[in-house]
């Protein structure tokens, strides 16, 4: 009897079956869509893997949804990234709501056409409601024919009992219950003006948008997420949206339905996916890049904030309590504060790989390779045998002269490494025999990605840095108010891409003279304060997101200690306009800084570094200290007010929660 409750899944296509973790697509292999299996097909006939009902057919024909009789919801995905083929290689031989038996032919795919288009033909079966119905899934890998058993799903005990009790009841109550809870939690029928839906979401027009509690709605079984946009309260359901929509309308009454609006919403979401114009593509790339940077950094923001505050404490101890930099106490605390930044390539490599779907351990090792002591030594103290495009040739590789850059503290090269690895891994799996993957996949990946970063990405960043150094030196020759405004407004953009190291040689040269004085370092200090002020404005204005409120306050404190990464990556870049208006505030502060002629006489900036602005006796600049405070406070107030009134609203935090969690550069995975 126990076996009768199990769901036996048959192969939808003939070919080589594999566990879903071996599928060459990170969205599926990491079980983001649920547990399941994949098959490399040997023919193009597609069959139903279970008895059930067709609940979804994609407009592009590349995906079919089936609800099994026991409640499991299966997605049959034909090929990888084949949505871009707009249905050309596929034929569907079934219809919505059609009943099917396991082994029934429901469509076909042209394998040659898919391969010619440069796409993978892998057929993937994912149980999209895995967390609700699956106790475990046993997959039998190897050659299989269409209609033969390939997997057995053991349901959760409660689900099995419900399935047994419901065998005589054709109407499922699951969607009705979800609909009832959604109606209640958006404020009841009396709070609903009308309702439409798109391909994944219920879109409510509410009388009072403040009534729903987002976390309550988000936790309703069957609800994926919520969002507030375009005057709508959007409840993300997924492929079962039409089932839930029908139940909501059944309970509300037909007067709430807006069929015309639903049709327009579906067209809008499809148009968004299909926007291939230059501006549309550029917008997607920009959004994906910023989303990837912030998503890669957010897991370590708290660590960086803590490290920044620890370094601030160390600065206080050395400046005011005369702690020597050679004292073991200093060395120990300094190591604590610097560790997160020194090993940032390893940490970011790991988190970026998680974000982009590559192997986190492998990319983390690539980060470790880049900061390995002997490599770092070549970059910082290697013998320079010549120059090329402004780069010092400090090493050779198989006899070829190369430039080795310094990757300590770097972020962008590791994000590139994670992206490249996410593209390489599926390619390696496509030809690497399964028995060799454990050893040779890391070998090939580390070598190819590591060498690409060292031989191409690093030198490219060095060339850009040299150009930036020349540009900054040219700017400093302009009127101080103009140069200070431009540099302060744009400096944190350099930080995002790790190009701010181009500024260090200029600052070092200024502070290494007989009378150390740096105008540039004072401008950098202004940019730090501005980003902290942006985070402070978010803290003041956020009302309904305790996590963001705590993060933004700690990010502000860290920025006051001279560490802006928590503010930028944890808050400001995440909410786009915050970073932009904070940078405008920095430019305003830069004007004042230039007008007052503020200089800096040490390395430590921001508010924690105020002793660095006290002019020594030889400088004859008694107003510099006051100028620092005036420029810094103007910056703080300007950036704070700009962000508070124009750069951020509390609803932005809710919209960010509903953003896709997995992204690839240039494409959003939904």
TrEMBL record:
GO terms for biological process: phosphoenolpyruvate-dependent sugar phosphotransferase system; trehalose transport. This is PTS system sucrose-specific EIIBCA component. SUPFAM superfamilies: Duplicated hybrid motif, Glucose permease domain IIB. CDD domains: PTS_IIB_glc. Keywords: Cell membrane, Kinase, Membrane, Phosphotransferase system, Sugar transport, Transferase, Transmembrane, Transmembrane helix, Transport. The active site is at 198 (phosphocysteine intermediate). It is found in: Cell membrane. The keyword Cell membrane applies. Residues 25-129 form the PTS EIIA type-1 domain. The phosphoenolpyruvate-dependent sugar phosphotransferase system (sugar PTS), a major carbohydrate active transport system, catalyzes the phosphorylation of incoming sugar substrates concomitantly with their translocation across the cell membrane. This system is involved in sucrose transport. GO terms for molecular function: kinase activity; protein-N(PI)-phosphohistidine-sugar phosphotransferase activity; protein-phosphocysteine-trehalose phosphotransferase system transporter activity. Its EC number is 2.7.1.211. It is an enzyme of class 2 (transferase). Residues 176-258 form the PTS EIIB type-1 domain. It catalyses: N(pros)-phospho-L-histidyl-[protein](out) + sucrose = sucrose 6(G)-phosphate(in) + L-histidyl-[protein]. It comes from Lacticaseibacillus chiayiensis. The chain crosses the membrane at residues 288-310, 330-353, 360-380, 400-422, 443-465, 485-507, 519-539, 578-603, 626-647. PROSITE patterns: PTS_EIIA_TYPE_1, PTS_EIIA_TYPE_1_HIS, PTS_EIIB_TYPE_1, PTS_EIIB_TYPE_1_CYS, PTS_EIIC_TYPE_1. InterPro entries: Dup_hybrid_motif, Glu_permease_IIB, PTrfase_EIIB_Cys, PTS_EIIA_1_perm, PTS_EIIC, PTS_EIIC_1, PTS_IIB_1, PTS_Sugar-Specific_Components. It is a multi-pass membrane protein. PANTHER family: PHOSPHOTRANSFERASE SYSTEM TRANSPORT PROTEIN (PTHR30175), PTS SYSTEM ARBUTIN-, CELLOBIOSE-, AND SALICIN-SPECIFIC EIIBC COMPONENT-RELATED (PTHR30175:SF1).
